[in-house]
Design a protein that fits this description.
two-stranded antiparallel ribbon, Rossmann fold, disordered C terminus, alpha/beta, about 260 residues, globular
């Protein structure tokens, strides 16, 4: 097997040394960090464009920049079945098309590799982080970002954060901004509730997702219709909305993404 790139080998060694329970294993979930691809296959410095499409043209039109700018931190907030995880996976797949290496910080242990692959994510180029606790997870993400091993990090947050957790989250956002990495944070909870302080203050873009209706084909439920509202946007006008149709995956096929532009709220 070809040797690892020096940058990747150094980053993995630091992780193994610092977090005993977070030892790196290849091709399987073990401890806090699962690395799907063989390290020798990872490009040393993947090219990533300045603006990343979300996979939904109407949503890109709302954002002003045509997608997610490089270095931006984004919050996707919504309740269950709101489509926030599916949207994040679409963004991750788009980033991989541009040559990015991404990671999914899976605090709840609910990451579904079959859904990710169905949404277009190439699991060979994805890191899945499963930390023992929130602080360890934030430190793992920051270490990978600072080591320039990631272009995008998706963080699936629990419903509640302590003050200490919020401070760690602020530091992670700052690391991502300094390294020009994209950070997507999945917030749990209804859109009517206010965002945690660390997220409301530090993230440049906040999207609120709410399921509006089920999509049916006869008696079968085949997906859901989701409203996306731009609650905060440092790169364009907030308050605008788009309607997305997110369909369920069948037999491993990619689910079609349909969107509609809804204009100002």
């Amino acid at each position: 097997m070809p040797s690892r790139t020096p940058q990747l080998a150094s980053a993995l060694t630091r992780l193994e040394t610092r977090w005993g329970s977070a030892a790196v294993r290849l091709g399987q979930v073990s401890g806090s960090l699962a690395l799907a691809p063989a390290p020798a296959m990872l490009p040393a410095s993947p090219p990533v464009d300045e603006v990343l499409p979300t996979g939904f043209a109407a949503l890109d039109a709302l954002l002003g920049s045509g997608g997610l700018p490089r270095g931006v931190s984004v919050s996707l907030r919504g309740g269950r079945s709101s489509g926030k995880t599916a949207l994040a996976l679409h963004c991750l797949a788009q980033a991989q098309v541009q040559g990015a290496i991404g990671a999914f910080l899976d605090f709840g242990g609910v990451f579904d590799p079959l859904e990710a692959a169905g949404r277009g994510v190439d699991l060979r180029w994805l890191l899945v982080l499963r930390p023992a606790n929130l602080l360890e997870g934030f430190e793992l993400g920051a270490a990978l970002i600072n080591g320039r091993q990631l272009d995008m990090l998706v963080v699936d947050l629990p419903a509640r954060l302590t003050a200490r957790d919020e401070q760690a989250m602020r530091r992670l956002v700052a690391h991502a901004r300094r390294q020009s990495a994209r950070l997507i944070v999945l917030e749990q909870g209804a859109v009517e509730r206010s965002a945690p302080g660390a997220l409301a203050d530090t993230l440049g873009l906040r999207l609120e997702l709410e399921q509006r209706a089920w999509l049916r084909a006869g008696r079968d439920v085949v997906g859901r219709r989701v409203r996306v509202r731009v609650a905060k946007n440092r790169f364009g006008s907030p308050g605008r909305e788009a309607e997305l149709e997110i369909r369920y995956l069948v037999d491993g096929e990619h689910g079609p993404a349909v969107d509609r532009f809804a204009g100002p709220a």
